[in-house]
Write a structure and sequence with these properties.
four-stranded mixed β-sheet, alpha+beta, about 30% strand
């Protein structure tokens, strides 16, 4: 999976980029995402919080997560909840194939 990381009102540092790629690279082991998939990550800074939006197109549909937190790295940690969404979609996909 490739990553497209964009920052709004913030400059994306190499440490931020590394953290995002490290967390989201765990999604590669699932069948619904291939190596040509582009994960779009948008980091925004608001006066009181920071927001991370992750959008990943897959064969089943678009996987999307939005997390708002005071700390950017905590928001990235919570954004990896896409694994749970992906697992649910994978089960639905496999059940549809059985029918």
């Amino acid at each position: 999976m490739r990553f497209e990381i964009v920052g709004k009102n913030i400059a994306v540092t190499p440490a931020m980029r590394t953290k995002i790629e490290e967390k989201l690279s765990a999604l590669d082991k699932y069948l619904l995402i291939d190596e040509n998939t582009i994960a779009r990550v948008l980091a925004r800074v608001y006066p009181n919080s920071q927001k991370v939006e992750v959008t990943i197109p897959s064969r089943v549909g678009i996987l999307r997560a939005e997390v708002v937190n005071n700390d950017f790295y905590a928001a990235v940690d919570l954004a990896h909840l896409l694994i749970q969404i992906l697992w649910k979609k994978k089960i639905q996909f496999l059940l549809r194939q059985r029918r």
